[in-house]
Amino acid sequence: MTEDIVSKISDELSKGIDSEPQVLYLLVEIRKIRQSSVRSRKTFLDFYRDWACHVELTHNDAVDIFLNRFEPLVNPNLSAHEIARNFINGFPSFFKLGELRNELRDFLRDKELTTDLTDDQQKWHIFVKHFFGILKDCSIKRPFSNGSIKELVLEVDNQGNSKFKFRLVGRRDCPICKLKWK
């Protein structure tokens, strides 16, 4: 089964990933392979993949791991702008999509597939543009108040600028972190 899925991914990569349906297909096929293998560590690739596959993602291990990385940086005495700065300074590679790119590259290498998608800057930009087109229609919510972060959404403006908006429990102002993936 895994060989068939890897072959399908290879075919899709050879066509070039340049649409939202192709991005989603790639992520779903990666999910099939990763779920069939035994691993305990959830990654950012898992987090982003799960986010893309749900209109509203409310709970899973990858979401908890992701949001829990940011929890210690939420100080109720700071402004939303200061919290956003803490997030960016604490995890600069995340806001440049470094972890996603590296983990996707590692997956492709592990399956002996071409890494052009992650290695070629232009192909990576096209992938991210379509990937964000998917994510902007989805949100991550914590239905239970088990942390300071209750929701995460991605916003993309008409010029393609993107930002994460973190909605915090008990606050109206939101830390907003611009993504620097271009």
Radius of gyration: 17 Å
Domains (count): 1
What number is the mean pLDDT?
Answer: 88
Ranges where pLDDT stays below 50 over 5 or more residues in a row are none
| Largest sheet geometry | 5 strands, mixed
Indicate the structural class: alpha+beta
H/E order of the elements?
HHHEHHHHHHEEEE
Query: Which of globular, elongated, flat, extended, rod-shaped describes the shape?
Result: globular
Report the β-strand fraction as a percent range: 5-15%
Strand arrangement, largest sheet? 1-2-3-4-5
Count of helical stretches = 9
Please estimate the helix content. 40-55%
Distance between the termini: 36 Å
- The total of beta strands comes to 5
Characterize this entry briefly:
This protein is an alpha+beta fold and 182 residues long. It contains nine helices and five strands; from the N terminus they run αααβααααααββββ.
Strand-helix topology:
Blueprint: H1 2-15, H2 20-36, H3 44-52, E1 56-57, H4 61-70, H5 80-90, H6 92-95, H7 98-110, H8 116-119, H9 121-135, E2 139-141, E3 149-156, E4 162-168, E5 176-178
Parallel strand pairs: 1-2
Antiparallel strand pairs: 2-3, 3-4, 4-5
Helix pairs in contact: 1-2, 2-3
